[in-house]
# Entry
Amino acid sequence: MRKALTSILTAGALTGIALYECGCETPGAGATAGSVGADWAAGKSLANGAPAGVFWAWKGVGALLGGQGDYDREKAAAEEGARMQIEAQERMQREAEARERARIEAARPRVVFNEITMDHNIELRGVKGMKVHMNMDANNLNGVNLQPTVYFFDSNGNKLMDKDGKCRTNDGQVSFAGPVLVPSYDKAGFRDSWVFIDYRQFDITELGKHDLRFKIQVHDKDAKRLVGQSQFYGMAYTVRSSQ
# Structure
């Protein structure tokens, strides 16, 4: 750029000198060869009193700078267009991947819990305990035997361990299995399935309030695979002297 400017300035200055010596210049609007020659002979300038060579040099510089500005604008526009195209392609790719994940998820056999509620301090066949109600949807599990089970933990998230061997998992955790559910459609809803929890099976004898936690899992009973799991829920169990 600097080299080009120097060449233009030099060429313009030389042109101005030559024009001055011969008393002529490229005519402007309304000028005649005689009037231009007279101006040069009188030592006049066409650029606010500056020598004519400088005038022509700066005219060349302006043309060069104007062309550079156009080039910069065109380059910036091209770069912006390329960036927008890349962003559009990336967005389309993300949307396609999201659609594919949604398709796979929709086809996956699973149980989705909508709501879990509890009824405390009730009696069932003379046994005091609580009911855990489940509102859930079974998707793509038509005809599958589903086994819901409630698993209990202490307030620190450790498994609550059974002591009498009645309501427990193979590793000894306190748990209660509900009735087996069999969906009749690919999309089936169970709005009020429940599991009864016998308080005695907590095997807690220390007086006072005890904070417990539980979660529910649903298994394909025949395939022995997990198809649904709830979040953790908290509850309080209080042992009184009259119990």
